[in-house]
């Protein structure tokens, strides 16, 4: 899912947040054919994320996102795993995920904003062959976006369309995100989000069996996700935000909800 809701506004100066995201213990993974993929062991997927965005001259913006993954696989074997032979070991893996750097440029100002964005995702993840745990795609992704935003003091709407181009024989993907938010009371924003990634299935990378036993960051990942998020300004740019997301369908993504809590600062 997107790191920080795609929007066309260029920050006046800066925005940063430190977030914790968790997918609690799960053993089922979505498959594009509608069936469940059962992991060899129960998995827990936690992420600590540092996000930074800085605007210059109301036209240009830069983005940096650093996810640190904290993965666990349980001691107990699951019943009827999708790959029943040679089970991976139980264990933990704490390592960087895919670092992201980006650039934004405002194409159209006024009430209806249109912005172009270029996001580069680096292959900085780590894979442990013994446990099958994996913290990121083993590919560089270059993703151009077009983002539209409009809003008032109490209502806003964002929509973005992007295309992720990957190397290393991974499939490319289409990306769509929409967000509608409103302010019910002073300092509080609440928003509904729909986030879609659709693989083009044009890659032919072959994964080791141990990675397929966890299904973490494999080729042709895609999902239809929906969620609710909110943010509350505490004092002079300092605030808290939280979110809950679920996936209605997908391919090699956890069949479990995720939760997010962040502390942000705007200046």
What does this structure look like?
There is one protein chain. The protein has 267 residues and is an all-beta fold. The protein has a single domain, classed as Porin (Beta Barrel). 1% of the residues lie in helices and 61% in strands. The protein is built from one helix and 13 strands. A twelve-stranded antiparallel barrel has the order 1-2-3-5-6-7-8-9-10-11-12-13. Strand 12 (238-251) and strand 13 form a beta hairpin. The model has no long low-confidence stretch (mean pLDDT 95).
Q: Which fold name corresponds to the CATH topology?
A: Porin
Order of helices and strands: EEEEEEEEEEHEEE
Specify the CATH class. Mainly Beta
Quickly count the domains: 1
What is the percentage of strand-forming residues? over 45%
Outline: globular
Number of strands: 13
Rounded Rg: 19 Å
Number of helices: 1
Order of strands across the biggest sheet? 1-2-3-5-6-7-8-9-10-11-12-13
The CATH architecture:
Beta Barrel
Unreliable stretches covering 5 or more consecutive residues: none
Roughly what is the average pLDDT, rounded to an integer? 95
Q: Kindly report how far apart the N and C termini lie.
A: 25 Å
Helix content: under 10%
* Helix-and-strand structural type: mainly beta
Sheet with the most strands, sense and barrel status = 12 strands, antiparallel, barrel
CATH superfamily: monomeric porin ompg
């Amino acid at each position: 899912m997107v790191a920080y809701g795609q929007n066309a506004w260029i920050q006046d100066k800066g925005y940063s947040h430190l977030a914790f995201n968790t997918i609690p213990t799960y053993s089922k993974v979505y498959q594009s054919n509608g069936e469940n993929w059962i992991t060899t062991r129960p998995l827990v997927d936690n992420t600590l994320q540092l996000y930074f965005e800085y605007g210059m001259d109301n036209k240009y913006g830069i983005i940096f996102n650093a996810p640190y993954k904290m993965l666990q696989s349980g001691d107990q074997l699951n019943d009827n795993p999708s790959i029943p032979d040679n089970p991976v070991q139980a264990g933990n893996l704490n390592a960087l995920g895919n670092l992201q750097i980006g650039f934004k440029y405002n194409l159209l100002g006024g009430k209806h904003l249109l912005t172009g964005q270029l996001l580069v995702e680096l292959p900085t993840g780590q894979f442990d062959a013994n446990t099958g745990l994996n913290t990121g795609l083993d590919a560089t992704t270059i993703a151009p976006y077009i983002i539209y935003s409009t809003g008032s003091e109490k209502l806003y709407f964002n929509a973005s369309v992007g295309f992720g181009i990957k190397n290393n024989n991974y499939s490319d993907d289409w990306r769509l995100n929409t967000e509608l938010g409103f302010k019910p009371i002073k300092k509080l924003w609440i928003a509904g989000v729909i986030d879609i990634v659709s693989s083009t299935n044009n890659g032919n990378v072959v994964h080791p069996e141990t990675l397929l036993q966890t299904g973490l960051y494999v080729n042709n990942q895609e999902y239809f996700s929906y969620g609710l998020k909110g943010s509350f300004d505490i004092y002079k740019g300092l605030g808290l935000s939280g979110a809950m997301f679920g996936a209605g369908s997908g391919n090699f993504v956890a069949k479990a909800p995720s939760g997010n809590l962040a502390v942000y600062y705007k200046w």
